Amino acid sequence: MMIEKLKEISLEAGKLILEVYNSDDFNVKIKDDKSPLTDADKGSHNYIVRELKRNFPDIPIFSEEGKSINYEKRKSWEEFFLVDPLDGTKEFIKRNGEFTVNIALIKNNLPLLGVINVPVTGESYFGSVENGSYKSLNGDIEKIGVSKLLKTDYLTVVQSRSHSGEEEDKFYSNYKIKEKTSKGSSLKICLVAEGKAELYFRSGPTWEWDTAAGHAILLGAGGYFVNKDKSPLIYNKELPKNFGFIASSFEI
């Protein structure tokens, strides 16, 4: 089963990341887009790409660290893997543990299934619309689902550890807020998927590989994921960016 192999690949990539995380030198570089790059990003990318090619040779791969693939080449892809080999590099550098490995399968521009591994805890989130979503740790697997609270109830909302501001505050002012919690990387989406929060608004841009795996897992858990203007969020755009989104347990 594909999702089992993707879990295995993400878990092994997480172990490679931890080797760097527990070392004295991350060898941090700054990319052209001003975001950081470490040996852990590169090592995870190389491993994931190699294993995906070995196990699924007919499915192309689009990864953050291999994002130079020309749109003319990828626009005809009906199916492909979308990979963030280390989501939350800033959190990795801060050593707060809030970073993940994200692998998603995109089909016809929509996320079909996703896997998120949390290297520091060993937890994995995985799921699909067809088969539901789950969380696993040390072989124990539990089915997860979104909160049953209504949008008119008092809600727990998620904010980015590194990217929140006035637009988020304005959006959340439309709801009754019981609690605000901050997390790094795609863990914010996972909190909504497992029912620990109801709403996550992101005003600023993200790359498609930042959201795809979480998007699939949230849909499998019964949630919703849309652009911040409430239009459908699709993948494999010419510029592979999202300009704000809403992840929620209820329809916005």
Layout of helices and strands:
Blueprint: H1 2-21, E1 29-30, E2 36-37, H2 39-55, E3 61-63, H3 71-74, E4 79-87, H4 89-94, E5 100-107, E6 110-118, E7 123-128, E8 132-137, E9 140-144, E10 154-160, H5 166-172, E11 176-183, H6 187-193, E12 199-207, H7 208-220, E13 224-227, E14 241-248
Parallel strand pairs: 3-4, 10-11, 10-12
Antiparallel strand pairs: 1-2, 4-5, 5-6, 6-7, 7-8, 8-9, 12-14, 13-14
Helix pairs in contact: 1-2, 6-7
Can you put this structure into words, describing what you see?
The chain has 252 residues and is of the alpha+beta class. It has two domains: 2-144, Fructose-1,6-Bisphosphatase, subunit A, domain 1 (Fructose-1,6-Bisphosphatase, Chain A, domain 1), CATH 3.30.540; 154-248, D-Maltodextrin-Binding Protein, domain 2 (3-Layer(aba) Sandwich), CATH 3.40.190.80. 29% of the residues lie in helices and 34% in strands. It has seven helices and 14 strands. The strands form three sheets. Strands 3-4-5-6-7-8-9 form a seven-stranded mixed sheet, sandwiched between helices. α1 packs antiparallel against α2 (39-55) and α6 (187-193) packs parallel to α7. The longest helix is centred in the first third of the chain and has 20 residues, at 2-21. It starts with a helix and ends with a strand. The relative contact order is 0.15. The model has no long low-confidence stretch (mean pLDDT 93).
